[in-house]
Recover the amino acids of this structure.
DNA sequence: GCAAAGATTTGCT
DNA sequence: GCAAATCTTTGCC
């Protein structure tokens, strides 16, 4: 499944479930990053401490910090000598929605606060009120929001997502409603140059309400 | 050893 | 529509 060519694996991930403890959601939008030659991929510099999971076995997590604040989840694909991964860009919440809101509040509250220090209660309450108003379909509608809603940490990078005994895992969902797949260029990769940025390596469930906001639901 | 940029999100103009 | 927030990684000196 995930050892298949990355674009096939990306299609297979759509509709699957991402589970973390009591939280579960359906993957509705992904992006493929394929090989060292891909100028948009973190693997373009070769193997580093951060991207090491991309050079490992398929089905493992690659979690990285972007813009100094957002944690993004990838699922590693292809053989260990072929660095590739699929970025989970948006998820439809299915279970554990309260835990997702709690995690988003906690993520934002600890931002900029030294580890181990309690966040300011007033600021915490302000964040809480805002997150409580976020509609369900926006809880994990973006790669950074998936990381926040599922409470992912850099320490989760490298974990095996195919281990059925793990609290953080992927599950197939035979009961998922049927859907059509749409392919578009990837988001936010203009730095890679026109040729790489134009490749239709973003896949999403057509018309799904939980598509990432930045991408504009198309 | 230091400067620059980033697979984003949010809020203000 | 634009810029700030925030910090790790990369790349050059």
């Amino acid at each position: 499944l995930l050892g298949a060519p990355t674009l096939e694996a990306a299609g297979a991930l759509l509709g699957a479930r991402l589970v973390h403890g009591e939280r579960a959601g359906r993957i509705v939008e992904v992006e493929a990053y394929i090989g060292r030659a891909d100028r948009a991929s973190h693997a373009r510099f070769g193997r580093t401490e951060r991207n090491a999971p991309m050079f490992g076995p398929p089905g493992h997590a690659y979690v990285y910090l972007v813009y100094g604040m957002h944690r993004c989840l990838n699922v590693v694909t292809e053989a260990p000598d072929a660095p590739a991964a699929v970025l989970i860009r948006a998820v439809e919440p299915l279970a554990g929605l309260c835990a997702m809101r709690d995690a988003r509040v906690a993520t934002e509250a600890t931002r900029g606060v030294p580890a181990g220090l309690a966040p300011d209660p007033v600021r915490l309450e302000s964040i809480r009120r805002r997150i409580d108003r976020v509609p369900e379909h926006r809880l994990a509608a973006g790669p950074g929001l998936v990381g926040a809603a599922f409470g992912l940490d850099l320490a989760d990078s490298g974990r095996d997502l195919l281990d059925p005994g793990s609290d953080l895992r992927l599950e197939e969902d035979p009961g998922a409603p049927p859907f059509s797949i749409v392919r578009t260029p990837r988001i936010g990769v203009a730095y890679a140059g026109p040729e790489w940025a134009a490749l239709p390596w973003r896949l999403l469930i057509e018309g799904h309400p939980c598509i990432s906001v930045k991408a504009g639901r198309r």
Notes: Residues 8 and 23 of chain A are 26 Å apart (CA to CA). Residues 42, 45, 48-50, 64-69, 111-112, 154 of chain A lie near DNA strand C (CB under 10 Å from a C1'). Helices of chain A lie at 6-13, 97-110, 121-132, 143-149, 194-198. Chain A has five helices and eight strands.
